[in-house]
Amino acid sequence: MPELTVSVDDRFDVPRAYFADAGVWRQELEKVFRHSWLLVGHESEVPAPGDYVTRKMGTDEVILVRTEAGELQVLLNACTHRGTLLCKADIGNSSHFRCGYHGWTFGNDGTLRGVPRGRELYGKDFDKSSLGLRAARVSSFHGLVFATFDTELCSLAEYLGDMAFYLECMLGVSAAGTDAPYGSFRFTHLGNWKLEADNLAGDGYHLRHAHRAGFEMGLMGAQAGAVEGVCVQFEHGHALRAQRTAVDDDQPRAFPGYPEDRWPEIEQQLSPEQARMFAHSTVVHGLVYPNMAFVHTPRAGGFDAGETDAAMLQVRLFNPLGVNETEELNWLVTPADYPEEWKLSAFKTMQRQHGATAFFESDDLENFRRMLQVNGGVETGHQVPANFDLARDVAPFTPWFDGPGSVVGADISEVNQRWFYRTYLAAMEDRA
Amino acid sequence: MSTRDEIVEFIHHETHLMNAERYDEWLGLLHEDFEYLMPMPVLRDDPAQPRHSERSLLAWESVSSLTLRFERILTDFAWADRPPAFHRRHLTAVRVAETDQPHRLAVSADEIVFRSRVPEGSTITSALREDIVDVSGEPRLVRRTVLLDVDRPDLAQIALLY
After folding, report:
1. Which one in A123, A297, B40, B103 has a CA-CA gap of 20 to 30 Å to A283?
2. CATH topology of domain A38-140
3. Where do the structural domains in chain B lie, given as residue ranges?
4. Topology adopted by domain B4-158
5. By the CB < 8 Å criterion, does A304 face chain B?
6. How far is CA A67 from the centre of its chain?
């Protein structure tokens, strides 16, 4: 763990201005987003040469494209002449991108190919090779594509570090890899992006209150029963909360939500310690710092009779459009070779429970926008800092597995949120 | 077989029930296989290409999921619906057409939905609503597809039913 001035167990507050000040938002883009690996998509969104999707990295517009040579590239979506947005579609296939202003044309690998009347107007020594589209560093993890423009930042593998142990439990269950079979879902909502990061990093505390309707209506599945959970923190600011049904350790391992005939493959794909961590899982959620989160649940609420039992892995990305507005993208990520019927069932669970239009999710977003409503207040700003004291003195229990990261044996704690904000504040205060 | 006027009247009636939040009665107008679909709007360069995704559905509801959705509102813990939003659906140009299935009619309507709730403010959203109505007995909605006229939907625009 990096040395920071505030220990994870020290008391500290986050001033409300951090959620309400547009100046803070500009600094976040510089100090946090610019120096992090950021999720941009899933490889299956661009399967063939020329396939592209347009995305944001923070507030920068980028193109995720598969080049004619079949490689993944993330290019700044801005013409190198005047900076006009090059590619305006969400999705498409093209061997080149042509600017609508003066007609500069770039290959899908970013090289500047054509400049109208270039030799005549710029001279014969005009060096097009220096005017290609700015390309980010690109790296994939089990199908998820990350990018960064920071040339000094460590590799993605180092950045994810010990978090990979846990991510592999969900992304690595099939030898065939992963798929995002229903593409991406994009929408905007009110609320500061950090509130969602904070919530998904490890807020087990809100469940029985914010989602009480879900518990009362019997939609929470095994989460409503006897459970035990851990909160885990990792270098670079990542955090995760994992919970399972409380079982005796000599009980045969089960992977709820996965077809039973695939359990031997899961055991084979995961290390024994990963399988021990992931077995009997009721929920795993977490944050890949700063703005990617995930939620994994076995099927919780039986909406339609006779449907296939399917675990759901939702990957989320939240980009701050401003201090008060967030653009969110969601993907359902599944094992690539599971039956279509299984994927469809997982998809319905996602859209009905955790999607943009889901009634379950609506109560979280309601809380985020109601914070927005008060965070700009002058007295609130001075007198009511955000509080993160939960479960600092609760005696931890011994977790059911021996995993990497800083594993805290506590299902309900704010240790992960403290970790997220410590990492964030260190970057913002130039202590990173 | 219902007449076209009866079908138009049926569509106006079910829309009124939604506006009036008479959800139990509205559920009673759904066929047991009812599906509510909202495809993702997608920006493609070519105007000839579809403007909504064929595989990415922002909403996919059934009778049972909608029943749960309305039951939730009646609990004391539906935070996002307390206080409730103001909302009203305005329909125009309701069109009725035959389908290639017996006792099934295609009904489409242009729709404007107004919604207002603090702190989200007011939104006015336009959409094309495409329905399939079963007319083998009393009219029943079999499918509703909502095609938003919004390229970047905000949560306030998609979290309510059209």
Report:
1. B40
2. Rieske Iron-sulfur Protein (2.102.10)
3. 4-158
4. Nuclear Transport Factor 2; Chain: A, (3.10.450)
5. yes
6. 25
**What kind and span of H or E run contains A139?**
strand A137-141
Domains A38-140 and A162-428 in one fold: no
- Alpha-carbon distance A397 to A280, whole Å? 18
Q: Does B38 contact A357 at a Cβ distance shorter than 8 Å?
A: yes
Q: How far is CA B16 from the centre of its chain?
A: 12
- What pLDDT score does A293 carry? 98
ipTM over 0.90: yes
What whole-number distance in Å separates Cα of residue A130 and Cα of residue A279? 53
pLDDT per residue as tens digits for the range B62-117: 999 999 999 999 898 999 999 999 999 999 999 999 999 999 999 999 999 999 99
Residues 79-98 in A contacting B (C-alpha not used; CB under 8 Å): 88-92
Structural domain spans, chain A: 38-140, 162-428
Strand partners, B148: B127
In the CATH hierarchy, which top-level class contains the domain A162-428? alpha beta
A100 touches chain B (CB under 8 A): no
Residue A57's H or E segment, with its range, is strand A51-57
HEC sequence for chain B? CCCHHHHHHHHHHHHHHHHCCCHHHHHCCEEEEEEEEEEEECCCCCCCCCCEEEEEEEEEEEHHHHHHHHHHHHCCCCHHHCCCCEEEEEEEEEEEEECCCCCEEEEEEEEEEEEEECCCEEEEEEEEEEEEEECCCCCEEEEEEEEECCCCCEHHHHCCCC
Whole-structure pTM value: 0.95
How much of chain B exceeds pLDDT 90, in percent?
91
**A367 chain-B contacts, CB cut-off 8 A:** 79
Q: Which of the residues B68, B69, B160 would you substitute to probe the A interface, choosing the one with the greatest number of A C-beta atoms within 10 Å?
A: B68
Q: What is the mean pLDDT of each run of 10 residues along chain A (432 residues)?
A: 48 81 95 98 98 97 97 98 97 97 98 95 94 98 98 98 98 98 95 95 90 84 88 96 92 94 98 97 97 90 75 97 95 97 92 85 87 85 81 82 93 92 91 72
